[in-house]
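Title: Prediction job returns without error message
Component: structure pipeline
Severity: low
Priority: P3
Assignee: unassigned

Description:
Job completed but the reporter wants confirmation the result is attached to the right record. Sequence as submitted:
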Amino acid sequence: MPSKSTLFMGPPTDPSAPATDLYGEGSRKYRRTVYTHDQWVKHRSPDRFVNNLSTLFNSGIYKNVGKEVFATTSVAIFVWAWNMLAGGYQDLAGVTHDPLLQGEWIKVVGLPLQAFTTVSPSLGLLLAFRTNSSYKRWDEARKFWGLNINHTRDLNRMATAWYGNEGNPWDGTEFAGAPSPEAKPIDPAERQYLLGQVSLMTWAFVRSMKRHLSPPDEDEEDYIAEMKSRLTPEQADAIISAAHRPNRALYDLSVAIEKLPMHFLRKDELNKNLSIFEDTLGGSERLLSSPIPLFYSRHTARFLSTWLLLLPFALYGQFSDSWNHIMMIPATAFISVSLFGIEELATQLEEPFTILPMQGFCDKIGGWCDEIVSWAGQGKEAEEAMKSNIADLAPSR
């Protein structure tokens, strides 16, 4: 049964769910989607534009930039109202009236649009680089978990297929001038236990890695419960109490591999997968601890905010055909939502682990590894069958 931290795409359906789960940090756990064929069909649907527009006001991205959009729209309303009071206005009947405010220092405010169009390409490049860099971080994190998925299956497949091949007395193999030790008959119960330990410690590593990359307040309780439910008390306590839990789980996996009765060269092949796990763990820690350089992110945010806050002063003159230039207000709001939304997307992607379905990955890895090690033997318990099996697996000489 998946833990309660296994979540899917979409807002919470429980009416008692807190409002903080609808957008911002609380909504990130609802973005951990895994696609199947049904989801891809919906993704390609010709109705996707209508469906996306129908949920426009439910978007967590747009809700998250609400304060910024309110600020720029407020500036637009101020410019519109001030210029009516200082420059005159037209009533609904089309009659033009003199300014209500008069004085030497009371003038219509505005800025030339050319100043904004001149720096627009630079702003676009900053936003594009910011978004691309954030997406690359997400893509790299997803590839790390892809490597975990691939090599956990690879490790358990090799362990299952090679189990019991400590030596091969039937082909006269010698190593360092000494014949290989004669293979012992396989004890089915021992094989089930030892391969089960490899599968279990494989899961313990990826589950510990998931906890290592997740917020403590979200995953700690589930992690401890899952570890204690699947491992022995001694194994669970050793990993839970470790200062670096994934490293401890990886060590236990190494010990489980070392206990397998097989040639040491084959154990070396199994251990190569563990080196890849260490690489994916270290790469993930690098992404978690090292954001895009803060001076770049801050300059982009300051540039964008200043540009949008001053934009209404330049848009006022461009909407002279609308009643009292009023269309500059929704135009400012639309431009602000679009550009602030791009920057918000980049910020949400920059830390990828809390929007990756890592719990789903761990559950799948555990299930797949358990299935793979269950294939051991498959009715070939006798020594004669073992000889035949090894002969099939060994390369021709």
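Comment from assignee: result matches the submitted record. The first helix runs from residue 37 to 43.
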